[in-house]
Amino acid sequence: MIDLQLLALLLIPLLGGGLLAVFGSRSWAAELNSLMSFLTFAASVVLTVRVIDSGPQVAFSEQFFIDQFNVFLVALTAFVAFTTSLFSRPYMRIEQHHGKLTTGMLHLYYSMYQLFTFAMLIALTTNNMGIVWVAMEAATLTTVLLVSLYRTPASLEAAWKYFILCGVGIALALFGTILLYFAAERVLGQGGTALLWTHLNDVKGELEPTVLKLAFIFLLVGYGTKVGLVPLHSWLPDAHAEGPTPVSAVLSGLLLNVALCAVVRSKVLVDGSLGNHFAGNLMMGFGLLSVLVASFSLFRQKDIKRMFAYSSIEHMGLITFAFGMGGPVATFAGMLHMTVHSLTKSAIFFAVGHAVQKVGTQQMDSIRGMLQVSPTVGWGLALGTFAILGMPPFGVFASEFLIITTAMHEYPWATPILLVSLGVAFAAIFGKMQPIVFGETTAKPLPHPPALVPVFVHLLLVLMLGLYMPPYLADWYRQAAALLG
Amino acid sequence: MHIPFTLQFINLLAALLLLVSFAMLAQRRILSLVNLFAWQGALLALSTFIVAYSSNQHHLYYSAGLTLLLKVLLLPWLLHRLMRKLNVRWDVETLINIPTTMLFGIALVIFAFNLAAPISQLAEGITRGLIGIALACVLLSLLMMLTRRKAVTQVVAFLSLENGLFFAATSATQGMPLVVELGIALDVLVATFIFGIFFFQIRETFDSLDIGHMEKLKDD
Amino acid sequence: MENYDLIFAILFQLAQLVVVVLAAPLLTGWVNQCQAWLQNRSGAGVLQPYRVLHKLFHKDAVIAHNASPLFRVTPYIVFGCMWLAAAIIPIIAVDLPFSQAADVIALVGVFAVARVFISLAAMDIGTAFGSLGARREMLVSFLAEPALLMVLFTASMISHSTQLPRIVETLAHHQFVLYPSLAFAALAFIIVLLAENARIPVDNPSTHLELTMIHEAMILEYSARHLALIEWASSLKLFAYISIGIALFVPHGIAEVGHWAGLPLGIVLLLLKLMLAGAGLAVLETVMAKMRIFRAPEFLGTAFLLAVLGLLIHFLLGA
Question: N or C: which end of chain B has fewer CB within 10 A?
Answer without folding.
Answer: N
